[in-house]
Structures are given as structure tokens and as C-alpha cells.
Amino acid sequence: MIDSATLKVWEERLFKDFDVFFFENKEEASELLPREGLVMTKEEFKQDGSFYSMDVNNNLTLWNLKKAANYVGVLPAGLFAQIPLQQQMRILQEQVRLGRGFVWTDIHIEELFRTSAREKKVEIKSLLQEHFLYEAEGLAVYFIDQINWSGLSGQKKVFFIQTMADLFIDPAPAWEQLPLSVQNKIRDQYDHLMDYINHFPLINGANCFSAALAMATEDKELAVWIIKQWVQPQALLFGLEQRNYERVEIHSGNILTHLLEDDILLWKKDGALIHACYYLGENYAFNKNGQMIFNPWQIVTVEGLLQSWEGNVEIYRKKLR
Predict the structure, then answer these.
(1) β-sheet bridge partners, residue 230
(2) Angle, helices 118-131/154-166, rounded to nearest 10 degrees
């Protein structure tokens, strides 16, 4: 599913030429970071386009940061390696505590790769220990940045990327295993989106909302543009309204019994729209599970989505003209 051109782009975009670290307060950041680094509030960091980007947000999974991460330190690539090991460990332990991505402990690794095949799990653990391990006084932390990433061979980079991507792929049938009616529907109505089905995006950003809205867009050129965008919840709802979609009332029963081809399913939790997919018929939907490069566009079963996503499900259907 990951072609060589995509892998090449990912290799270059996965880690930036600067390191980002998070701290609870300014004093801690000042104590642990070299004076050559930059320290700013989290709000300032998010407003700084030179550091905060879609890639940084997704690669470091910044939505998992704890609220206590109030300050941000930015170091040019290579400077972290010059810090004494004890100081490095304190910085990395703070990143683990605050939830920054690509800083892992052994517990994180076991949890992250728990579904991987045994041989692959052994190989990824060996790679991490050889290239990304920081260890002192019985403590071990794995930290990946541009410097140690650039030290990997091309083969090891591909293995790491493919192993990470495998974690985000939903169980899904191969194209030839889909019902013939679903295959024909896609060929006839969505031939312009065939290049996206069961493929990964080149860059971060494209999400479930853009996937659903693109499928509901009749203009083929516009659909191809939309599917690659980072669409916000309100933009999705407004887009559905423009395309004459309206909410269908569901009073009881299995939601699958209410679905019609071309419906859009929306998941809401605590009043917030969290997921969307496009229904193709026969229990299959076009879906993307997130905005990361590791989240592919897939055709999956609605039953599987209902098990994976929590919240209340709403159905939107195109009005008859």
C-alpha cells in the first residue's frame, strides 16, 4: 500500500531540522535547556508558523499533550546531542510525563506494537535499542529526532515507517474481495478517487471529514482537491448543507437497517463531531481514521467502524429534488 514515492516523501518530512520539547513552567525549561535554544509559551509556539505546522502537530501527536505542558523549548537539530546525558534524561522524562510523541519507554513500546507480529516486534525493538535509546541509572527512554533518524540506512527507515503504518491500518478486504456491486459503484461514480482507495496520503492533514465530503462532491476536480484537505467539523456540516444533505431521524433499531447508499455517517461525542464516513452500500464505507500520514483511505465495514468509534451516530442523507 505504500509506494516508493510516498516512502521517500515520508522519510524527508517525518522529522524536522529542530527539536521541540515541552515543560510545565518556564523555570524548568530554562534550567534544562541550553541558552542557545528558544523558550516560549505554548500559545506563542502555536502561532509561530516556522515551528508549528501540520507535520509537527501530527508527527508528535500534540493532541495527546497534557494541559500542564505550558512552555515549549525549540532547539536546532544536533544541539540536544551536546547536552550531558543526565540532563538529556531529565528532558526526555518530562516529555514522557507530558505525552509528547516519539519519546517512548519500554512500556510505551510494548503497548504500541502489541498487535505486531512477533518477528516484527523483535526487529523494531532491536532497531530502537540500537539507534534511539538513551539510558542512565537504570532508566531507559527512546527518542527519535532528525539527527539519529538520518543515521539509519534507507532499508531501516523503510522498515520503521512500514511498521508504524501497519499500526493504523484497519482490517479491510482487498479490492477483489469487495462485493461486485460496491466495485461497480466505485468504478462508475468515483473513478476519479480510485487512486486514494486503500492508499496512504503523501502529507499530513487529510482527514475523515475531507474523505466523506469529497465522496459527496459531484464535481470531480473539486472532489480530488477536497480529499487532500484538512476539513474542520463545521466546514463539513456546511459542505453537507450546500450539497443538500440533511439529518435523518433514527428512533430505534440497528443503524445498519436505516442506511441507504450515499448516506454519510457522523459520530458525535460530548456534543463534538469526531468522525465521519461515506456509505457505499452492503455494509461498506469509505473511511479515513485520522489526519496523519499513517492513516490510509480505506473501504471498511460499517460494523467495524461502529466497534472502533464511540459516541452517538447520526445519518445524513441527500434530499430528493
Answers:
(1) none
(2) 130
